[in-house]
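Hypothesis: this fold can be encoded by more than one sequence.
Test: take the structure tokens below, design a sequence, compare later.
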């Protein structure tokens, strides 16, 4: 994720540690003004004020995300792996700690899958004429630490409007059972996406959507599968240039305080004398960094489902050429209340590698699929309808 990557340099990442998992004192990644804005938006709560969390809602949200994932894995023949990773009876059961924290529902009313969407999430009637589109197929690629589950609102909205949608779990993410500490290359991390595109029939095209470091993943796929990618949407994402790594891109961010330094820690699965293998999160800082405009219910859901980010793919420089990556129309969606990849960094990427068109999401944090799902949906539909000359 942006907050993790903007907070360290390669030299700092390779320092020896006396423990296998440790927090680091890292270069600053947020400005003092950003910190002050955070304090205004999220003042620290006193010990006598505890927010009320609807745990039944959270479990229902997890179930709808699990149901969407199940459908995806059934379509792609990976149900066995999915069953090993997520329990459909209770997707939160994989965490014994969470199971003890989240009580059973006291409600006796049966709830349908459609009931699990928040009441405020209304399906807009956009009268889309999908038959006239070059493609109505979206492929959604999550950012670091997230999984296909994070798109459950976007997936629902698009499908309700007649679009075909697939949300991908990258290796070691979401319901994919591989250990993120063992991922050593970008190709390995992106393999579920490239495998999906490999199996796509010739002549079929998709609109790729990448969030956060998922931007590097869709860029990698653009280079390999030019003929199958019609458009690409970068949502607060790493939009790289030829020869850049994700780490290089996030090093462009300067002048910040220590918020994101405290929001992550390195994992050393191979021992203290080796490079870090993954980046994990400080769950107590998730809302401030990633979800500052997201409801407490969705923050709680995300805190259960987020997984460590593999480190090695972030350092790998990517090769992008005009004949492949450069020939596919790109669109960028800016998130204006983003404290993980701030607007200044998003604009720096846009200026150095201009897309076809830039969209802005006012009031959106780093996770618009949770905080502003309807606004994001409308942008995606609009991009699908843009006629390319």
């Amino acid at each position: 994720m942006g907050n993790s990557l903007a907070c360290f340099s390669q030299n700092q990442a390779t320092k020896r540690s006396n423990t296998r998992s440790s927090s680091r004192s890292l270069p600053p990644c947020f400005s003092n003004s950003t910190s002050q804005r955070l304090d205004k938006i999220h003042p620290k709560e006193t010990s006598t004020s505890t927010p009320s969390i609807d745990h039944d809602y959270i479990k229902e949200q997890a179930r709808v995300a699990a149901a969407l994932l199940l459908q995806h894995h059934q379509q792609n023949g990976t149900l066995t792996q999915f069953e090993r990773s997520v329990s459909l009876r209770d997707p939160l059961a994989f965490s014994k700690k969470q199971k003890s924290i989240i009580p059973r529902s006291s409600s006796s009313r049966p709830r349908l899958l459609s009931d699990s969407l928040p009441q405020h999430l209304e399906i807009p009637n956009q009268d889309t004429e999908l038959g006239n589109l070059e493609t109505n197929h979206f492929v959604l690629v999550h950012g670091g630490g997230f999984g296909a589950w994070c798109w459950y609102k976007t997936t629902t909205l698009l499908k309700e409007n007649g679009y075909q949608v697939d949300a991908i779990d990258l290796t070691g993410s979401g319901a994919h059972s591989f250990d993120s500490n063992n991922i050593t290359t970008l190709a390995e991390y992106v393999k579920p996406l490239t495998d999906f595109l490999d199996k796509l029939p010739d002549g079929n095209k998709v609109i790729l959507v990448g969030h956060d470091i998922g931007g590097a993943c869709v860029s990698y796929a653009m280079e390999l599968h030019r003929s199958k990618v019609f458009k690409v949407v970068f949502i607060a994402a790493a939009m790289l240039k030829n020869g850049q790594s994700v780490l290089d891109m996030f090093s462009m961010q300067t002048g910040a305080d220590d918020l994101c330094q405290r929001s992550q820690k390195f994992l050393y699965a191979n021992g203290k004398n080796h490079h870090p293998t993954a980046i994990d999160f400080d769950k107590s800082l998730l809302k401030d960094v990633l979800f500052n405009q997201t409801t407490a219910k969705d923050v709680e859901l995300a805190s259960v489902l987020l997984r460590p980010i593999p480190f090695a793919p972030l350092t790998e420089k990517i090769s992008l050429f005009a004949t492949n990556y450069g020939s596919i129309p790109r669109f960028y969606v800016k998130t204006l209340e983003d404290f993980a990849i701030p607007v200044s960094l998003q604009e720096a990427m846009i200026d150095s590698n201009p897309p076809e068109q830039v969209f802005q999401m006012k009031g959106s944090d780093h996770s618009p699929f949770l905080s502003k799902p309807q606004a994001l949906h409308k942008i995606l539909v609009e991009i699908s309808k843009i006629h390319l000359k």
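The longest helix spans residues 55-75. The two ends are 34 Å apart (CA to CA).
Hypothesis status: open.
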